[in-house]
Records
---
Amino acid sequence: DVDPITARRGLALPAAACSCAPPPPAAEAYAQASAVFVGVVEQREEADGVVAWTLRTGRVLKGLDPVSGERAVVVKSRAMSTACGRSYTEGTPYLVYAGENAEGELTDNLCSRTRPVTEAGPDIEALGELAAGAAASTDEAGEAAAAEEGASEQARAEPSVPAGDTTAAPP
């Protein structure tokens, strides 16, 4: 809102603001994101209304090639919060839900579920369970496939006897 005195003097400028719907739950945000990781901001570079944030990654949950040790990634965002630009604090660890632009660069904005790690406990817990569930599903699927393959091998090794066939020799 603009105060009436400022408006009468012709000094009022139209307000521009970022408008976001509440972010989706952690599992949905994870599914929609191109990359999800914990990162600490090390550097900020701004050019042409875009900020390139360099973050040193710790735990990678999705989307970045797993590497041993830590590495740096660049996440781009608009410079202005009125354009939904994300601002990070250097040295602070964040749980980042990054998207990807047409050029394949990681991006983030105020409307994402990104937040400081100190505020991301429920997300980290939910994503840990999600990852554990995915690993368990993969293990169960692998066990089921192995059991099926074992049954197939056993069936090939043992001749089948049609029901009611009394001429077959007992095993």
Note: Residues 1-14, 137-171 have pLDDT under 50 and may be disordered.
---
Amino acid sequence: LQGVLVLAAIALCSGLLLGFFNMITYVDPLQSAYDRFSEDTGATFSKMTDAEGQTIGDGKVVYYAVSDDGQVHAFLAEGKGFQGGTVQVYLYVQDGVISKAGYGEVDTSQTYIDRVKDAKLLESFVGSEVSSLNALSADTVSGATGSSKGVLNAVNAAVEYYKEHVGGENN
């Protein structure tokens, strides 16, 4: 009985310590997205326009927000790439044009993502008019087709979401 009580006390203390460390090290993904949106654009974002996201093809809009002044549409999107792993991208649209793009988290299965980054595949979309953009028709990077598709699927999700909900013919 005494051994059981000692083990119970150890388990309780371990659980409390684990909970404490989780509390002080937890990073809220929504707040992290707000911070990155603001850091990348210099704009203020007070509320997420769509915190639920939407799956589009092999991509997904994770978060979508509009800056408080209404000028910047910010997306955190992810796309399926090599072996089903994901590539996250941040995409910003102003006046119907992609004004900035950057990488977020990249799944470790995307072993050739550095080739994609070196080829500046994501950056090639900056300056593109969203209404006429077909991201999936862009060329992939030689030797990194799977990782390239992850980027293209993410960009496509953000672009199609924008067309459907913000700047499309029906809006």
Note: Residues 4 and 10 are 10 Å apart (CA to CA).
---
Amino acid sequence: NWEGVKCLFRKLTLSNKQKFNGRPRLLYSQLFDFNDCFVSLACAISLMIRPDYEKTVLDFKKAYGNFFYLEIIHASFKMTDRRDKKEREENPMEMPDQAKLVNLRNIEMHTKHNIPLVATHDAHYATEDQAKAFEVLLCIQTRSKMSVPRDARFFFGDDDIYIKGEMEMFL
């Protein structure tokens, strides 16, 4: 509704006023200032690996009440890891493994604190046929070239990150 749109604009304006390294941002405490006009989903991997994860989840549940959900995400893709070979070997972390960790933690919080779950899918473009254009845009953003092999430049690992229909989500 229009109230939600105005609320979103207020949050965007605030984040643009508080730039950090030239990028818009909100302080952690400000995430709770707009709980009257947002639905909140928790899935970010950086959130899940925090030592105070459970407290963070309970803070969001307290602030957003029935409008706070935990995500179960299907991440079949593997992002290209641009770290050097030695670092990759010492600390491997593939996206599917991260997604499994997130899902397990969210199921644990769902069971323990009765927070509803929602199934999601990572989407970076609208339709399957936009995969090539998205890949070109990634090359432009990262100053790479399409002629460079996918495993030597930033790439999401497959062309399956488009908005899926209900039936595709079950497959």
Note: Strands lie at 40-42, 68-74, 117-121.
